[in-house]
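Practice problem 4.
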């Protein structure tokens, strides 16, 4: 970008940028600190030799910080591997097992086996109880759904079979609650015929003349009340 703005070629622009970055990075304190760490000033022959041997890979154990860090890292890795091996010896697939390499009492082993079997049996029992409860809930839900569907069909208009009675006093129906006619459909001739047929069926077979007349009258009166 600077080269494009100052009409300078790319090579000169990169060299100028690198020179400016070096001037900002290599200040006096940084240079003096690097000389002290490398043993250049004040002159330290042992420190300089140690740095050279470290850079060339000729480092004795514990001689420099690099080797100390490597040794510490190896100890950490070995300790972590030891913990992993110990965990593998004490457990398998998430289940408690007998620790290896140790002499155990047979009574303790039998007691441990009994506890494991009891825990497994209790888990199976709880699972069976949950399964039965789940099946009962499913059956109850299906029964409630069937009852809702049946109730909806009982409250459906017997003429148009489109409207469903959900309350109100304008519908024409029987006192038994199994016959309903939409107010607009009640003015049709089919509604009267269907209502008369249902009243006869709802009243049952006539036992006597007086009983038959009384039953029909009761049904019709209840239908009139629903209107």
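Answer key:
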């Amino acid at each position: 970008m600077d080269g494009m703005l100052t009409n300078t070629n790319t090579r000169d622009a990169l060299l100028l940028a690198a020179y400016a970055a070096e001037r900002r990075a290599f200040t006096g304190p940084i240079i003096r600190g690097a000389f002290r760490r490398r043993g250049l000033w004040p002159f330290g022959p042992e420190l300089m030799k140690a740095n050279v041997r470290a850079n060339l890979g000729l480092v004795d154990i514990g001689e420099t910080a690099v080797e100390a860090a490597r040794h510490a890292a190896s100890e950490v890795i070995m300790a972590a591997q030891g913990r992993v091996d110990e965990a593998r010896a004490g457990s398998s697939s998430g289940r408690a097992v007998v620790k290896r390499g140790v002499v155990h009492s047979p009574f303790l082993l039998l007691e441990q086996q009994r506890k494991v079997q009891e825990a497994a049996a209790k888990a199976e029992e709880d699972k069976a109880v949950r399964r039965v409860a789940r099946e009962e809930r499913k059956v109850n839900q299906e029964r409630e759904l069937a009852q809702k569907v049946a109730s909806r069909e009982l409250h459906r208009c017997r003429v148009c079979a489109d409207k469903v009675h959900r309350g109100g006093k304008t519908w024409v129906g029987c006192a038994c609650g199994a016959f309903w006619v939409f107010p607009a459909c009640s003015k049709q001739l089919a509604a009267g015929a269907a209502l008369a047929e249902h009243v006869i069926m709802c009243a049952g077979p006539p036992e006597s003349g007086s009983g038959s007349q009384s039953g029909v009258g009761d049904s019709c009166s209840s239908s009139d009340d629903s209107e």
